Amino acid sequence: MERRILVSGASGLIGSAWVRAARSASFEVVRLVRDQRDARPGSIYWNHRNSLVVAHPVDLEDFDAVVHLGGAPVAQRWTSKVQRSIFSSRVDATRTLCERIAMGRRPPRVLLCASAVGFYGDRGEEILTEQSIAGSGFLADTCTAWEAATRPAKDAGIRVVHLRFGIVLDKNGGALKKMLTPFRFGLGGRLGSGHQWMSWVSLPDVIRAMTFLMGRDDLCGAFNLTSPNPVTNQKFTRALAHAVHRPAVFPVPRTALRLAFGNMADEGLLASSRALPKRLQDAGFAFENDEIRTSLEALLR
């Protein structure tokens, strides 16, 4: 029988790739959209901030799975308004969605809900697994509240999986696309000292891991969606420069990053996250792109 999957954040980097993969596997995909201009056949319009247009529980029934990936962009200067938007678009939206799907007579069997390795905060050289405690700071607090917001779904007996994404690499979007232009012009370089650890993962491995987790009824809780081989920013910089056949001799000073991005620089660009996908690997998942140099070369072909 054809599976029905409800997807939020379907226009983003991960969401659009997930929708393509699900449809190629003959799944029926329905998009949950927050812009009424995107509401068309095969989509459900909702607005978690306005109770009058929050999707009715009946509209959210008869789905085998819900994949919740929505959220305001993190990679921007953090004003108070931006931080409120980042928090609300994740925490409030997740809580509202979970309350609605929990109210249905035929709720989904599984909810895959986005989170991030920002959960761990800036942890230096510490090796992080899903058993590691939450860190401190705005991103860590947001991720902790984001995961807690799925409680209504858990209480309704829905299997909930928290996808703690690392830096997802794809040449057509996300962080890698933004870095490609300066690096291709020979203007790339490490960020700050370059000693901070980067938990990265290729987009193809993300989609494979999500499919794996959706199909395993025995798996729930948090999973790090990161390569088993995190690298320092300095090593990543060298690997990317090698992949585009250019030098990387223009480091970006910490002070410049702080001027441009404010607190986001410290918690995002300069924070050290050495997260490992222990639970995924223990469950039998095998990464196809696990070394940064060969992965970047493959992604940039």
List the helices and strands and how they pair.
Blueprint: E1 4-8, H1 13-24, E2 28-33, E3 43-45, E4 65-68, H2 80-103, E5 110-116, E6 127-128, H3 138-148, H4 151-155, E7 159-165, E8 167-169, H5 174-184, E9 197-198, E10 200-202, H6 203-215, E11 221-225, E12 231-232, H7 233-243, H8 254-261, H9 263-269, E13 274-275, H10 278-282, H11 292-299
Parallel strand pairs: 1-2, 1-4, 2-3, 4-5, 5-7, 6-13, 7-11, 8-10
Antiparallel strand pairs: 9-12
Report on the structure:
The chain is of the alpha/beta class and 301 residues long. The chain contains eleven helices and 13 strands. Helix 2 (80-103) links the parallel strand 4 and strand 5 (110-116). The longest helix is centred in the first third of the chain and has 24 residues, at 80-103. It is globular.
The amount of beta strand, in percent, is: 15-25%
What's the multimeric state?
single chain
Total DSSP E strands: 13
Unreliable segments of 5+ consecutive residues = none
Summarize the structure.
The protein has helices at 13-24, 80-103, 138-148, 151-155, 174-184, 203-215, 233-243, 254-261, 263-269, 278-282, 292-299; strands at 4-8, 28-33, 43-45, 65-68, 110-116, 127-128, 159-165, 167-169, 197-198, 200-202, 221-225, 231-232, 274-275. With 301 residues, the protein is α/β, with parallel strands linked by helices.
